[in-house]
Specification:
Elements lengths: L9 H13 L4 H6 L4 H27 L1
């Protein structure tokens, strides 16, 4: 019988996206924690928006 894939936690999805952003995700790490594409998409978009807002805020503080 096939093993049921347990849903991954938000923390696992966050670790996957953050390691992908900086490029340190290994193949074995990816295979060990399978994360759904929808989870990765949601976390990646949220993190990218947070990164853009943080950069805009830093630029405004420095140039203001």
């Amino acid at each position: 019988m096939a093993d049921a894939v347990k849903p991954t936690s938000f923390l696992e999805a966050l670790k996957t996206v953050l390691s992908g952003f900086i490029g340190i995700r290994s193949r074995s790490g990816h295979e060990r924690a399978p994360v759904g594409p929808l989870q990765i998409l949601v976390v990646a978009v949220a993190f990218a928006m947070l990164l853009v807002f943080a950069l805009v805020a830093i630029v405004r503080v420095v140039t203001g």
